[in-house]
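Tutorial, part two.
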Amino acid sequence: MQKKLEELKASRLEKLKEIRKASINPYPQKGNRTHTLEEASKDFDKLQDKSITLCGRLRLLRSHGKATFAHIGDESGKLQIYLKYDQLGKEKYKFFKNFDIGDFIEVKGELFKTKTSEKTLRVEDFRMLAKAIRPLPEKWHGIKEKEVRYRKRYLDLLMNPDVNEVFRKRAKIVNLIRDFMEKHGFLEVDTPVLQPVYGGAFAKPFQTTLDSLHMKVYLRIANELYLKRLIIGGYEKIYEFSKDFRNEGIDKTHNPEFTQVEFYWAYKDYNDIMKFVEELYSHLAKEILGSLKIKYQGKMVDFTPPFKRLKFVDALEKYSGIKGILDMSKDELLKKVKSLKIKELEEKKHTTKAEILEDLFDYFVQDKLWHPTFVIDHPKETTPLAKVHRSDPRLVERVEPCICGIELGNGFTELNDPVDQRKRFEEQLEARKKGALETHPLDKDFLEAIEYGMPPTGGMGIPIDRLTMILTDSPSIRDVILFPFMKQK
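Running the prediction step on this input gives:
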């Protein structure tokens, strides 16, 4: 295979030399396109008998002596071109032999239909726009090549129209969310990616150094605390599309670099946030797929509001069989976990009760939540940034939308009591001293900000990559990130 590739490259490099010998630039500065291929096909009747110029990549070549048919492709589609010896002349027609599949070409001519009624451009003149040194893959499918597809996404996009469409839908999802937010009066803002104190989630950060200030800084794991500062500053409805970075495991729903949209709404609580997200998610399903009832991995999913509400503790006790989890200490809960004799859970190194609860929920409950469900009222230990539940001080007003067994958001009635917030941060600090790795750092600047007063607020972060997975029927997060992180060979 490698030997054949080197032979093909050598052949193309030889053609490149011949082109340069003829004093022709094989890589000109621009193309003189008058129409895209889609426009040429769509406006065929209007453009007949008119000279037009098209540009694209050669995708198919069929030579028959003194006549050659080829297909060229651009972002909008593909079109057949026809080159004839009598039309172009001996030297020009001969020069076309320097072209290979994958090369970029500019063609000038008039449109006509072949005997089989295929729309075609009769080429009067052509020139090379870029010579491809490597041949395009002949076959590009199958599980064996999945890793190569992720590493060489440019080829994946080039050879697989379905993949191309996934990322067009992803762009549409982002635009629809932005339009939805704007129509509801939200202001788009921009907050720092480099932060002196990371926060807003339980996650291990990426760390670097700002040389000019001799200062340790972190890539953000979330933008929550900066957005809350803006609520304190007087904005009432804000959102941000953010790239976040978490130095943790990679699997079908996790990538070290990911995108989310996070929004905050003053004078609202988690009940209002649930209604808003319900409306947003059903709107996206309708706009992207044309229906509230869609399929994911062969199974029906119903986005019709209202979504089911499920209490965290009720669900966990039901599916795990462990009762009274709220009143158990960390050690008592650990004993219960060991008694279950589940290897996957026993192998975890739990340092806090919150970690145990989250892992138990992921194991026993998560995959059972297929249709859109809001998991609400989480144990207080799991969330240092949410307000204590109005009817049970052991809980916080937290909500996680789950669809197809995948967590699709995290939101709260936000904690705006500065005294309680300081206490929670200090508890996280103590947990870290005892060995817990994923704890929330104590952010003194944020504590000072919240002491100036923050109104009652509801907020949520929505993972764009996972949402795109559901709405494009993609089994892995790597299928919806153009360049997912890959281990070096």
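The chain is about 35% helix and 25% strand. In part three we will examine how such features are distributed along the chain.
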